[in-house]
Design goal:
The chain is mainly alpha-helical and about 350 residues long. It has 3 domains: about 160 residues, no CATH class; about 80 residues; about 70 residues, Zinc/RING finger domain, C3HC4 (zinc finger) (Herpes Virus-1), CATH 3.30.40.10. The chain is about 65% helix and about 0% strand. α9 packs antiparallel against α10. The protein is elongated. About 25% of the residues are buried. The C terminus is likely disordered.
Length: about 350
């Protein structure tokens, strides 16, 4: 049974490696994490493949040649029994992380995804190291290519595999375990690592978190609701910091009235339009938002009843008058934004 489990785990690792090298995953966070896990598991896969090739782990050989192999089985059994619980854990961990990676989509919450995946990657590394450590006392039973020196090299390779610590930064913010100054630095690291550098991307994050919260409330998982509320508070602070920075970097000689700025771009509108819920946006930005597949208003978070847009001539005239009075040059056109699938 233990041998079958070892072979099952080997098959699981091989299947995961195929997934990590395929185009099935989104080319953003999911594929990056999948490659990290694959690199952690690769040395262990090589170990298991040698056992499979040697015939020691062949159920068929054990059944047909029981008399000839009974002594060898008695020698190998302690090793296999030692593997058993950790293989089960590792198999379970891979089973947990794979659906998360396969289901990942850029319109989901990046912060919540990181909090789910990175701890699992750390546990996978720990389980892999434990399996290697348990092999060391049995080096005389191992094939020549798996002697202690080789195992030690594999252990060091896995141990020194650099892992992302974005989840740690997020947890510190959620637990208020950093000073106000360090809090800003931690937020800057998260923004940079997860590519949340634009207002649009932060709004996508906020919308995704609200959807997660709705699902958690329906499932009555109060701990999850509380955690999501904490993440929302962090994203809100990121948004406020970005808004302040955007205003300070404005080329306008006078502060631009907030009503004249697009809630998505935070920039002075040149082609304002009214959407179904009565909010006004820059046409190019709200069109890109809707084309991405987002069917909620970025400002109100309510679902659009339709996606038609009406030119807001009143706001456009007010902006033109304000620009003329304050000698602010109004741009003739806006670049077409594409923000949902930006890569880190």
């Amino acid at each position: 049974m233990e041998i079958s489990l070892m072979k099952a785990l080997l098959n699981k690792i091989i299947a995961f490696s195929s997934l990590a090298s395929s185009d099935e995953l989104d080319p953003e966070l999911a594929s990056q994490y999948a490659r990290t896990i694959d690199e952690i598991l690769k040395p262990l896969r090589l170990v298991f493949e040698v056992f499979a090739d040697s015939g020691v782990a062949s159920d068929k050989l054990l059944i047909k040649s029981l008399d000839d192999l009974v002594q060898l089985i008695n020698q190998v059994q302690p090793l296999l029994e030692t593997w058993h619980p950790l293989q089960s854990i590792l198999y379970f961990l891979i089973d947990q992380v794979q659906p998360l990676l396969e289901a990942w989509h850029p319109l989901q919450s990046k912060l919540y995804f990181v909090l789910q995946v990175e701890p699992l990657i750390s546990e996978i590394r720990m389980s892999t190291l434990e399996i290697f450590k348990m092999l060391e006392p049995f080096d005389e039973l191992l094939p020549a290519e798996l002697k202690a020196s080789v195992l030690e090299n594999n252990i060091q390779e896995v141990k020194h595999r650099e892992l992302d610590n974005t989840a740690t930064c997020i947890k510190q913010l959620l637990d208020h375990a950093v000073t106000p100054g360090d809090r800003l630095n931690s937020m800057a690291k998260i923004v940079d690592r997860l590519n949340l550098k634009s207002n649009q991307l932060l709004l996508i994050e906020a919308v995704a978190l609200e959807k997660l919260k709705e699902d958690a409330e329906q499932a009555e998982t109060n701990n999850q609701v509380e955690q999501i509320d904490q993440i929302v508070a962090v994203v809100t602070q990121m948004h406020n910091e970005l808004t302040t920075k955007k205003q300070s970097e404005s080329c306008s000689p006078v502060p631009i009235p907030l009503d004249f700025c697009c809630p998505l771009s935070l920039e002075l509108m040149t082609d304002p339009v009214i959407v179904a819920l009565g909010q006004t946006y820059e046409r190019a930005y709200i069109k890109a938002w809707i084309d991405t597949g987002l069917n909620v208003c970025p400002k109100t978070r309510k679902t659009f009843t339709h996606t038609s847009m009406i030119p807001d001539f009143t706001v456009k005239a007010l902006i033109a008058n304000w620009c003329e009075s304050n000698k602010v040059k109004l741009l003739d056109h806006m670049r077409s934004p594409s923000f949902a699938y930006s890569q880190p």
